[in-house]
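User: Once you have settled down, look closely at the record that follows, taking as long as you need, and be ready to discuss the fold:
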Amino acid sequence: MKNTYGFKLKSEKDYLNALSVDSENIRLRLRLADFYIRNKKKKKGLEQYCTAAEKLQVVGKTHSVMAIYRLVYSIDPHWDSVEEHLSQEISDKNQSMAVSDFKEHNLTDFIKKIDIFKDLPDQEIAQIANALNIRKFYSGDVIIRQNEEGDSIFLLLKGSVRIYFDDDIGKSIELAYLTKGDFFGEMGFFGNKIRQASVQSVDDSILLELKKDQIEALFAKYRAIEDVFLKFYHERVLDIVLALTPIFTPLEPQIRKEIAAKFNLVKFNKDSTIVKEGDPGDSMFIIKSGTVRIVKVKDNQANDLAKLNTSEFFGEIGLVTGQKRTADVIADTDVELMKLDKKDIDMVVTKYPEVLNILRDFINERSKDTFSKLMEIKRLSLKKGIV
């Protein structure tokens, strides 16, 4: 799949080429700035952030401008004139507060009402409350950025945030909308410190931050709490995979979450046969991790038709048409797959007919690709016979 520029955005050159086509695209410029910061090119990144802020200032988007300058300030407080832009906010010290400055919210009562903590004794609740770092973010502030390092977990005390994912062709996909009492950040904690998605404050929000050592101490003492966080972690990983799968991308996050609950997670070792040509087509699969090969056996020769990666899917033809499997699928690496059975896909397409329409479009395209590949195989076979 290509973006509107005709190429994927993976390098500095890609981003600069895209900006040469669409220099007023603020989202694209911010993504270039993010790219520079991730790759330790701070000066270039901050320059792009400030250019984006200046362009937004021209069109009167003051909240977005201030959000960008706050981000610049968090990276380098002495950068250019950022202190001048944020002078009032800096003097108010609103970016970080001590727990003692926030007694009116009665943190212990708030923590008790969160499901994952509700069974803890009062003494433990008090210890958590004392360890929390309270942070304030304004509407439009990016709290967490995709692909950056971070292992804190945040609880929402006030306000709301949106979680979104930027794919490699420049498209932003909404994953979730969280409000008071919800938490996020567990993906960085469980996923090698790398944030798998971005989080942006929708309203002015107040968050409670739990640091890695605090979380580990809590998990060591209360296994049930770790289990809850792990459950949410796996659900959000599946949601990202589902959101990146073309047949489900157009759906609202809440609908995707409902559908994700229907999938079962299955694993196959490298070189295992996942489906066999001629078997009943009673399930479809989405790749959570790893790669698979689509193989067609002709004249006792195995011919690769395609290789599929994370978020791609297979097995949909039998579910929609009632046909038996049209090819073998082999695990090219160790793979984790999300499996959806026929009864569940029937429920999904009945409730959300747009999924069926997208599936049919993909089946038509794949049928054409398979036919072309088979004709090529046939031509190669003839050439071999001639030789």
Observations:
- The first strand starts at residue 96 and ends at 97.
- Residues 258-386 form a domain with the Jelly Rolls fold (CATH 2.60.120.10).
